[in-house]
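Re: export button greyed out
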Amino acid sequence: MKRRSFLKGTLATGAAAVAVNAGLLVPNTVLASWNKDAFNSKTPEDALSTVYGSSNATISGDIKLKAPAIAENGAVTPITVDASGISGVESIAILAEKNPMPLVCEYSFAASAIGFVSTRIKMGQTMNVVAIVKAGGKLLKAEQEVKVTIGGCGG
Amino acid sequence: MKNTLLIALSLGVSVAATSVMATTIDPEKDRQQLVDYFKAKNPNITPDEYINGAYIYSADKMAQWEAAEDFPPYLDEIDAGEELYNKDLAVFTKCFGSDVSKIRVKYPYFDEVAKQVVTLEGDINKCRTDAGLKAYKWKKGALAQVSAYLAYNARGQKINVKIESDAAKAAYAEGRDFFIKPRGQLNLSCAKCHTYNAGRQARSNTLSASLGHVTHFPVFRAKWKALGTLHRRYEGCQKNMRAKPYKAQSETYRNLEFYQAYTSQGLEINGPGYRE
Amino acid sequence: MSIKIRMRGKSKDGIAVVKALVKHPMESGVRMNKKTNKPYPAKFIDNVEITVNGTKAVDAQWSGAVSANPYVAVKVKAESGDEIVISLTDNTGDKGSKKLKLK
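Workaround output, generated via the alternate export path:
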């Protein structure tokens, strides 16, 4: 696979991009304080009501949710929510339905950002991963079951 | 009886590596038979793809692996290896030369004078102790990081193991014998899982093929959240299969590595690799 | 303590994919220490901000359910040469930030 050799040119020691450590910059605008109630909610409905004022979301085929059918390692499950085809995306939230506290993360987008996020999350057991997209005042959702097994062969 | 690898595999027969037997073994023929065996098993997978382990058997797993490798967790380990290497640069340069991209590909090799298989990890530590430095521990940590740094710099180069004497052939035969022989409480051989049942599931794990097994080491295992050397993996697997493990860098494991590396001849080095 | 961040970013047709890999234990506060029978104390990144040429583009809140040594990729409207800054804080007050000039 030729693509693997691409990595060689982009390690910190040889990067072409100027990556200057900006030190301890504090974010330049006041951040919304961390939504403790939402993150401590024990059900997806409570979490959504706390974040968006409603848990009423309609399933939308315009949200491309990419998640594994069987997670190789539940602690590092790669999830991508692609709502780039939807206009006016204000926010994307990712929930892991059966986690003790289902809300995993929430992203707010200014007009300069596209409705897209890719990340890795912890899933403790087989459950649905839910992507919520707030766009044009509406709540949309996509969900998919991710099977989580306990493997771990080989020391 | 034609002493081919496949016949030995199918009988689960232990091939004792006496010097007589050694001369009747043809490593290149073995390797070709293995390549043909896997081609017949999975006609859609080319030999070159086997460096990607169990991921070639599942699009779902492959997608997860590619997501991990996109910005992999072992970058810090490579940097750490580079730092360690540069810390003792004078010593390492004296042993290995000044071009770090030319080191990994030389291993493992058969030392005709000492009459034994020499591995990269073995020579890293020999280099240190010969110069009066403390040896690194064998299975993880500093040794794995230096090995990762050297593997990373050799990416894309092809495995090139030389067997040019009867003694080298005997070491290869020992490794092959180990690979085929059933052992431990479960009476399993390496071959039973990684040749015969490659691509199938053992509980929730997909079994990787022995072809291309060693190219991605040292491995960053999500399970360990860290790097480990090939011998660490051998030991762990043996313990899981309820067989008595050998020590890292023991003659047994070095011969096994020699055999496995030869069967991956011509395949690309792609270490350090991320795995489950 | 400064949180270590690796960042990559490339712009094509006015849209940049920005990827970051952060070194952080992301301890949720729920995981139990089997020896003491008490949970490991929570230590996770809670706020993340990404700016383009100084203007906020993405504002995120994370929990301990984001994987350890977190990875995130976002897409922003930006051109080669634009400056992306990612800054983050964790619940114990640690901070980190990284600046990148887009390729």
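The two ends of chain A are 28 Å apart (CA to CA). The button fix ships in the next patch.
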